[in-house]
Structure formats: C-alpha cells, structure tokens
Design a protein that fits this description.
heterodimer, A: MetI-like fold, elongated, B: alpha/beta, six-stranded mixed sheet, 11 helices, about 30% strand
C-alpha cells in the first residue's frame, strides 16, 4: 500500500483550482467594495474632511453587524440574495457573494485604520500647497497609507482562504471542502494532510507576496 | 501685504461650553518684503495665527486680508489660488514619505495642473537653489532633518509665492542646522523679495532674521514693533521673559545709587564710553548685569549700572550725547 493510496490527484487539482478561483474572485470584489467603504468611513469620521456623524455611525454599524455574523451563518442567510446576484447559490459562483460580504467590511476597517495612521501634518500641508479634497485624498492620503492598505489586503486574503474552507456547505468545493469530506468524514488522513499542506503553502505564499509589496511601496 | 483686523478665533468645545479662544482681537500688519516674527509660548495662539493667513483656519471674528483678498470671503477656487501665492513650511516638514524628493517638490505644481515639462524644469531649478540636486531620487526617510526642511522650502517655493509662512520651521533642528536654515530664509527674503511670517518660541530665531516681531500671550498681541525695539526695550512681561530679561536681583540686595540701563547700538558698542564718562564726571559705577550680542547683523550691548558719587546727571547727559540710550530703573534693575 502506498503512502497516498486515497489520493486522487485530479480531485486535488480541481479543488485547488476552485479555491484559487473563489479566492481571486472574492478578493478582487472585496478590494473594489472595501477600499472605497474604508475611505468613506475614514473621511466621514470626527475631525476629517467630510465629517458627517450620521453617515459615519450608519456605515460603522453596518460594518459591525456584517462582521459579527459568523461566516457559516452568512453563507446560509445570503442564499436568496446570492441567487438574485449570480443566478445560483451553489458552487464557486454561489460562494463568492457571501465571501465578499463577509470580507469587505473587515477590509474596510483595516483601510480606515491605515488611513488614520497617516500623519495629519501631511494632509494639512497638501491643502496648504493648494490641493483640492480629491487631490489630497488621491495624491497624498492614499499613497501615504499604501503600506497599511496592502498589509490589510494580505490579512484579508488569508482570512478569505479560511472562509473558502467553509464554502463547502454550499457545495462550492475547494481544498477545505475536500479536507472535510474525505480527510475528516472518511478518515482518509492522507487527503487531510495533502489539503492542509496545500492550504498552508497558499497562506505562506500570500503572506510573502504581501510583505514583498509592502516593502516595495514603503519608504518610511 | 498681510493685515489682521481685530481677528478672533474661538474653537467650539461642544454643548454648554463657551469654547476655547485661541486668538482674541489680534491686529497686526506685515509689509511687503518684511520678515515678521510672531513669538509666544505654546498655546499662545501662534499656530492659529499663521493658519489664518492661508485659510487653513477661518476667523470667527475680524478680518484677515492677504495680498488684497479677504481670506474668509474667498470661494474654494479663490482659496486655492491664494494658497499658491502663499508657501508654507512646517516644524515636522510634513513631506510625503511615499514620494521622492523630486516628486515632493513637484507636488504643488502637479496640484496646480502644470505641464510635465514645466514641472521638470522648475523642480530641477528649485532643488539646485536649496542645494539638493544630487538627492532628487531619494526618499525623505533617507535625508537629515536639515535636508528635509530644505525639501520643504523648495516645495513651498514651487508655485513662486509672494509670501512664505514658517511654522516653527527650525524647532526640530539642531543649532547648527537651525543656523543654515535661517540663513537660507534670510537669503530668500533678500533675493526674491519674499514676505516672510515665522512663528517660533525662540527669541534667538527672531533676533537673527526678523525685522518686526509680535509677542503673543493668551491669544492677544501684547506687544509688537521693530525687533530692535522689542528686544532691547521690552515693554511687556511676556516679551521680557522671552528676551531673558528677568533679572534675579533681590529687592533687599539693591546697591545704593541711581540705577540705569545703558543700551549701545552699532558703532557705540565698541567705544570705551563708560570709562571716559566716569573719569570726566567723577561718577563711580557698579555693573549689575550686561549682555553683548548681535541683532541680525548689527552689534548691540546693554549694561545695567548703579551710579554713585560725582555728577550723575552730567554723566547721563554725556552717555546720551555719545548715542547711548539711558533708561532710569526704579526699584529693580
């Protein structure tokens, strides 16, 4: 009996592809939604350019509510909306909307925190040099916060990897699903080991890429 | 060039509170080409005052007129246009850490929508002016404090402003670097005819570069005038504190005689007036305190004396004849 007797490498490859598709699709949408949301959260905050207590409180509440729902529950609660958005609640496509709704508020908070770290003096100087709000946000605030924004994206991508493991609930497949159905429920330890090692490598690679990009954009 | 007409600024402190008054009916005038110093302790309202000039803060009372414009009455576009005519440098430099030295200097030009060719030429010119041409591709984190402030100055000058605001520009620098930055500011004033407003808590900065000075205390202008006047004959307690004039002679230890303070300026500083007058009038003197220094480029000396014996009035007349200012001090030197 060989060491990996239960392993169907074609299954593993398909599951890996599913995980990467879910991760790529949901990460792109998370950034597209979460980045502006984080910027608005920051700008409407106290003492900021677009200070607006009502908008800030409402957005903050929405973000907190979405962040406090456990992801497994979100997957199920979201089913009607998911069907409306992508036509199905199943498979890789069915997993992406809940993944985005779970991760975008999380990322928005990280973006808000990164923007808050920017030296207020730099923003003031940019206005003093004749910048408009738009120019100051796009030309000074975001570039200055970029290391934090990218570090936040790395953390979010890694959180998404563990979320995808739960997407098996809606039949989305992926490495996490494989680990549960074969590795755990059928006692195929070798499948468990291989999938976990692949997930570990994925997380490690994401972290390394994130760190490298942060180093590249950080000149502090 | 800049006029404050009874300007007040009160910050809202929330419901039920009367708010915090950072500036109370401050009036002052800065003429074109002047280096105007504003000195005060922290919390005296200096930062608010300088930010009212380029509209980073707006007054809650009175008027701020800059280069002919009422700052509070400008619309958004007008305010941006004004800010291009008013450069500003900061205590902590406030450079963009994500941009190179060259990009930092180019930033205000980009904000103003200038063409890439124009930006490139102007940036190179400015970097050469502040002596940083070979550091163009570096990031601010790779520079020393003095170099960072030079980048700040080049950036502030990019849009060829008429006015330069210096917000504690040398407070984070060591004495030697402070000297260099102040020399650069003085040169810019002379060469470009730039009107400069600088705020500081160091009298030494005012003494070296300013023509006029306003002393701020608790949001009020308690004294203002030519630096020479305020420095040598401070009228307010605040100004005296900054000049370092608070003398420690105890009331009980006052010597007998007439107490006078002599102020020598320019040529008179180096003449042996004191000995000559003493011999001629038979007056004896004891020196209670003194200092000799420079204001911008002019030397000055100040001596506090107790005069006894001989003809004190004749001695005072002789000092005055020799261009020495005499102030009679009562009770305390």
């Amino acid at each position: 009996m060989s060491l990996f007797s239960n392993i169907d490498w074609a299954d593993i490859a398909a599951a890996t592809l599913d995980t990467l598709t879910m991760l790529g699709g949901s990460m792109a949408l998370t950034v597209i939604l979460g980045l502006p949301l984080g910027v608005i959260l920051f700008l409407t905050g106290k003492g900021q350019m677009l200070e607006n207590k009502a908008a800030h409180t409402a957005l903050g509440l929405l973000v907190n509510i979405l962040r406090s729902v456990p992801f497994v529950i979100l997957l199920i609660v979201m089913i009607p909306l998911t069907v409306l958005l992508v036509g199905t609640s199943l498979g890789v496509a069915g997993a992406i909307p809940p993944l985005v709704v779970g991760a975008a508020p999380f990322y928005a908070r990280l973006v808000e925190t990164a923007l808050r770290e920017v030296d207020k003096g730099v923003v003031e100087a940019s206005f003093a040099l004749g910048g408009t709000r738009r120019q100051v946000v796009l030309g000074a605030l975001l570039p200055e916060a970029m290391p934090g924004i990218i570090a936040g994206a790395t953390v979010t991508a890694i959180a998404l990897v563990s979320y995808t493991a739960m997407a098996g609930v809606v039949g989305a497949g992926g490495l996490g699903d494989l680990a549960i159905r074969f590795g755990y429920q059928r006692f195929q330890t070798d499948v468990m080991v291989v999938t976990v090692v692949l997930l570990l490598i994925l997380v490690q690679v994401l972290q390394m890429i994130g760190d490298a990009v942060v180093r590249k954009v950080s000149h502090r | 060039m800049i006029r404050f007409e009874a300007v007040s600024k009160t910050y809202d402190a929330g419901k039920g509170s009367s708010g915090h008054a950072a500036l109370r009916e401050a009036s002052l005038e800065v003429a074109q080409g002047q280096v105007f110093g504003v000195i005060g302790a922290s919390g005296a309202g200096k930062s608010t005052l300088i930010r009212l000039i380029n509209g980073l803060e707006l007054p809650t009372g009175g008027k701020v007129i800059v280069d002919g414009d009422d700052v509070a009455a400008l619309d958004v576009a007008g305010l941006r246009a004004l800010r291009r005519r008013v450069g500003m440098i900061f205590q902590h430099f406030n450079l963009l850490s994500s941009k190179t030295v060259e990009q930092n200097v180019a930033f205000p030009l980009k904000l103003a929508g200038r063409s890439p060719a124009e930006i490139k030429a102007r940036t190179a010119e400015l970097l050469a002016r502040v002596g940083l041409s070979e550091h163009a591709a570096k990031y601010p984190a790779q520079l020393s404090g003095g170099q960072k402030q030079r980048v700040g100055i080049a950036r502030a000058l990019a849009t060829a402003p008429k006015i330069l605001l210096c917000d504690e520009a040398t407070s984070a620098l060591d004495p030697e670097t402070t000297e260099q930055i102040l020399a650069l500011i003085s040169d810019l004033n002379r060469e470009l005819g730039l009107t400069i407003v600088l705020i500081t808590h160091e009298m030494d900065v005012v003494r070296r570069v300013c023509d006029r000075v306003a002393v701020l205390e608790g949001g009020r202008v308690v004294e203002q005038g030519p630096v020479e006047e305020v420095f040598l004959h401070p009228a307010s307690d605040t100004a005296r504190r900054f000049v370092g004039e608070v003398e420690e002679t105890a009331e009980t230890a006052l010597p007998a005689g007439v107490l006078v303070r002599l102020t020598f300026k320019g040529e008179a500083t180096y003449k042996p007036v004191l000995g000559v007058v003493a011999r001629e009038t038979g007056v004896d003197y004891s020196i209670l305190g003194g200092r000799i220094h420079k204001l911008r480029d002019a030397p000055y000396g100040q001596l506090t004396l107790a005069l006894t014996g001989g003809d004190v009035e004749a001695a005072i007349a002789r000092f005055e004849a020799a261009d020495v200012r005499v102030d009679r001090l009562e009770g305390r030197p």
